[in-house]
Design the sequence.
């Protein structure tokens, strides 16, 4: 039996075409409308309310909480101040990425870690000998993400928190219409936005408060389809879509290091011992064998493939998640793992793994695509991620 | 003021801005001169009432060419076209006819009224797809002159001939019907439900002084299906910030390529010496030198106002004099304290994020035309209504709304002429008609802006208030737009060019005229 989120009584009444999907064992809305067009537009134009409760959440507290997390993740925990949030991967002993998520420092000795996959066993294994309490709060805490240019205006209608003063990747304890919440300026859209963490027992009150306050601002609930387009534009990766967790990969070749998935910036070179440190240091010296980049499909070549059949280009309003080979001069040099048509950038985008040295921005490649049942290759250009990075995200 | 330019564009409407962007992109030192304090021409957003932003004239992006979006990199300069999801036609019996963004929902809705029409719509849609594919290449082509024997024209005609032959007999015949029939007659061949025919035929009359039963209107229907081809590309919809924001976006692209844009700079005339242009004279007396002057204004202003018609051949002047403008539409913009409540769909609903079409029957539209034919505005007009603030909340204060009402017919040549009193009477007729379908509308109005064709001419300069710089009638299209032999953006004055919607293909926020003109200029001056 799939689980349902604390917001399910509200979301389920709004999913018009019964378009549900599985997400970490939960039944979640793909879209509320039959198509995600408007929900996506809300993320970039007004604001969208997205139920992200299926994230795994852990409360890590105690004298050695910081040490546990520091030895687990690749970033330097000694620099994370109370009220601050990190986005970070974590690796196995070989430096291969197990998962990626956020670490929030709630107070001096209390942290919240989120992950795509269940992480309790891994955290406990790393906690041997440490004085720390790890609590799985995944089901107890509901998370609502409010994302879009008007998200701050809406949230400030119902919360006394100083949202203008709340910087990117910072958090604050506050209330929404009297409901105790924790608000972090984070999200999975690359836009201005907040994630609101609430006790499951008050989840519906929170939903109602935000929906009511947001109505005059064009707030609409958005499902995973819309979120998926936004996260590709923002160049944000997804575990087991864009890379395999080292704990899931059946063969070695499927594993990736942070350097190979564009997360090298999140590996601290100077910090103390952590999982994968020496392997990653060696890779840093050697240079990564793979790069993870953006691809922009060259429209004219794409259009020509369809014109040959007398068709206008066929564009889907839903992102794809599949492996598509990438070539240079007829030789395969990599593969794309997900992509979409960007309604905002008017470009066909893809996230791709490319072998060294082919991942330099501006490199011309060919991306395999199926047109009228035939495998064809469309021209594409390597781009630095993210594709879309508005000032308002951090302003 | 001794700066010399390679090219001066007269008029900062969207086509002028597109032309300027392409000229600057080709390395030409380019200056745009706009008379008004803001750029955009008929694509402007103004805060007419405090806190309420109106797309004063043009209110939706029609068919902004995808190649322009790409070549000028408009997304990087702020392009953001939002989906307009539906069209709802309230019916006189309290019911409605709706077309939704989901084809299955639309088909089920149509079945409520006529299963025959629901089936027919699928096949009709396929035919229109093919028709749009047939016409699409023409939008991107400089019209060849069928009476000319020059190699360029012959090559263009051959290409066109080959293109039409490749359609096959069935589609060629369908295209011929579309080119010659009235939209009502054409739709009669397909559908039985009157409100459906009326709503579809409404797109055939927009901007023309013709009724749904006038021959030639079927072609304009086709124009709307062009958007279907670019459907996923979303060259059609509502631009964030209104249509003025599109003008700003194109202007940013033009500036990024080095173009200079001046507002409040009215051009008095184009300077001509020995049959070629040397620049322009501004109304303030300044003269600015340039090798190329491009007029983004309509054909009447381009050939009889900016230059002395005496410098032009008689057939051209005569042709421009006969070119039909006769504006037929007006605009009513409302600032609203809340949302209208439609009797056919009470309360808040998805219909408020789409278009509301007041087109209950073909007779209704034809009667609206009858009023105009005899010199009166329609007592019960056709209206295309959108609530931009429902799509982009930034258009009005939270909880409040702006409503854009495109109204037809309002004849430029009104019996007795337009006066303030007649303008308000026209506004009253619009609100009264709307109140039949949304009774609370009058109580919501905080501010009302009424624009007649006379106002449109006075404010934007568009002759006789024609929103397309001249009717999109068959005798004024392609190699006949604006005048035979002068349909390739050139004029008889060397260095003087035209790039407005009065040239092929014209009409709507497409930008195609501006792009094609700029390309011809670059080709001719390289």
Sequence:
């Amino acid at each position: 039996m799939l689980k349902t989120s604390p917001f399910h009584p509200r979301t389920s009444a709004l999913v018009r075409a019964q378009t549900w999907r599985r997400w970490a064992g939960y039944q979640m809305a793909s879209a509320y409308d039959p198509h995600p067009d408007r929900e996506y537009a809300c993320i970039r134009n007004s604001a969208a309310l997205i139920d992200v409760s299926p994230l795994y959440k852990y409360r890590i507290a105690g004298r050695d909480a910081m040490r546990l997390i520091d030895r687990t993740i690749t970033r330097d925990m000694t620099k994370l101040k109370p009220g601050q949030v990190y986005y970070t991967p974590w690796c196995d002993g070989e430096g291969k990425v197990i998962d990626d998520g956020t670490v929030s420092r709630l107070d001096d000795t209390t942290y919240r870690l989120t992950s795509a996959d269940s992480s309790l066993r891994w955290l406990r294994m790393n906690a041997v000998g440490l004085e720390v309490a790890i609590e799985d709060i995944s089901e107890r805490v509901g998370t609502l993400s409010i994302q879009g240019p008007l998200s701050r205006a809406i949230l400030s209608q119902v919360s006394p928190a100083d949202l203008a003063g709340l910087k990117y990747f910072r958090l604050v304890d506050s209330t929404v219409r009297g409901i105790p919440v924790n608000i972090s300026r984070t999200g999975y859209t690359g836009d201005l936005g907040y994630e609101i963490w609430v006790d499951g027992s008050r989840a519906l009150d929170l939903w109602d408060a935000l929906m009511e306050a947001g109505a005059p601002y064009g707030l609409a609930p958005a499902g995973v389809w819309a979120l998926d387009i936004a996260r590709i534009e923002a160049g944000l990766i997804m575990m087991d879509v864009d890379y395999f967790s080292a704990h899931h990969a059946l063969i070695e070749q499927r594993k990736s290091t942070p350097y190979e998935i564009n997360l090298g910036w999140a590996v601290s070179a100077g910090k103390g011992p952590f999982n994968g440190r020496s392997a990653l240091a060696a890779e840093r010296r050697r240079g990564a064998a793979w790069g993870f980049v953006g691809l922009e499909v060259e429209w004219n070549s794409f259009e020509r493939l369809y014109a040959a059949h007398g068709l206008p280009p066929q564009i889907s309003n839903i992102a794809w998640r599949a492996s598509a080979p990438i070539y240079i001069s007829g030789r395969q040099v990599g593969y794309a793992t997900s992509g979409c048509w960007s309604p905002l950038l008017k470009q066909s985008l893809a996230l791709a793994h490319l072998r060294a040295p082919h991942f330099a921005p501006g490199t011309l490649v060919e991306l395999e695509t199926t047109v009228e049942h035939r495998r064809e290759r469309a021209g594409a250009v390597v781009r630095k991620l993210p594709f879309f990075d508005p000032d308002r995200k951090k302003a | 003021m001794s700066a010399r330019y390679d090219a001066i564009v007269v008029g900062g409407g969207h086509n002028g801005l597109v032309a300027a962007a392409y000229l600057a992109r080709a390395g030409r030192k380019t200056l745009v001169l706009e008379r008004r304090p803001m750029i955009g021409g008929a694509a402007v957003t103004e805060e007419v009432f405090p806190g309420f932003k109106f797309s004063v004239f043009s209110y939706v992006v029609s068919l902004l060419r995808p190649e322009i979006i790409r070549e000028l990199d408009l997304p990087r300069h702020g392009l953001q076209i939002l989906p307009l999801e539906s069209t709802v036609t309230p019916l006189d019996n309290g019911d409605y006819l709706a077309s939704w963004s989901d084809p299955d929902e639309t088909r089920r809705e149509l079945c409520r009224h006529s299963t025959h029409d629901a089936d027919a719509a699928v096949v009709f849609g396929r035919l229109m797809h093919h028709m749009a594919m047939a016409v699409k290449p023409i939008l991107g082509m400089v019209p060849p002159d069928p009476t000319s024997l020059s190699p360029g024209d012959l090559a263009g005609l051959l290409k066109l001939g080959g293109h039409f032959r490749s359609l096959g007999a069935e589609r060629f015949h369908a295209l011929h019907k579309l080119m010659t029939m009235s939209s009502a007659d054409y739709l009669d061949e397909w559908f039985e439900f009157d409100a459906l025919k009326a709503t579809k035929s409404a797109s055939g009359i927009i901007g023309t002084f013709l009724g749904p039963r006038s021959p030639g209107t079927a072609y304009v229907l086709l124009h709307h299906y062009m958007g279907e081809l670019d459907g996923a590309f979303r060259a059609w919809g509502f631009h964030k910030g209104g249509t003025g924001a599109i003008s700003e976006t194109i202007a940013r692209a033009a500036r990024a390529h080095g173009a200079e844009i001046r507002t409040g700079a009215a051009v008095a005339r184009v300077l001509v010496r020995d049959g070629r242009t040397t620049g322009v004279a501004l109304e303030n007396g300044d003269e600015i030198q340039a090798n190329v002057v491009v007029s983004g204004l309509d054909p009447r202003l381009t050939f009889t106002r900016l230059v002395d018609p005496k410098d032009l051949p008689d057939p051209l002047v005569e042709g421009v004099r006969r070119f039909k403008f006769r504006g037929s539409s007006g605009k009513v913009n409302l600032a609203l304290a809340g949302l209208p409540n439609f009797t056919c769909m009470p309360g808040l609903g998805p219909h408020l994020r789409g278009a509301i079409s007041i087109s209950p029957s073909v007779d209704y539209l034809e009667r609206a035309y009858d009023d105009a034919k005899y010199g009166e505005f329609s007592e019960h007009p056709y209206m295309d209504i959108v609530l931009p603030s429902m799509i982009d909340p930034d258009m009005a204060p939270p909880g409040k709304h702006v409503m854009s009402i495109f109204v037809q017919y309002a004849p430029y040549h009104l019996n007795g002429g337009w006066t303030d009193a007649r303008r308000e009477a026209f506004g009253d007729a619009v609100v009264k008609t709307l109140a039949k379908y949304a009774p609370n509308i009058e109580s919501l109005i905080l501010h009302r802006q009424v624009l007649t064709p006379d106002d449109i001419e006075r404010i934007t300069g568009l002759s006789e208030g024609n929103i397309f710089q001249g009717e999109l009638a068959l005798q004024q299209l392609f190699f006949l737009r604006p005048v035979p032999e002068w349909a390739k953006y050139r004029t008889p004055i060397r260095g003087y060019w035209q790039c407005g919607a009065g040239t092929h293909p014209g009409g709507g926020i497409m930008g195609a005229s501006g792009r094609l003109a700029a390309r011809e200029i670059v080709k001719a001056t390289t």
Q: What stands out?
A: Chain A has three domains: 8-55+139-222, 57-136, 252-256+289-383. Chain A has a mean pLDDT of 97. The radius of gyration of chain A is 21 Å. Residues 203-214 of chain A form the longest helix (12 residues).
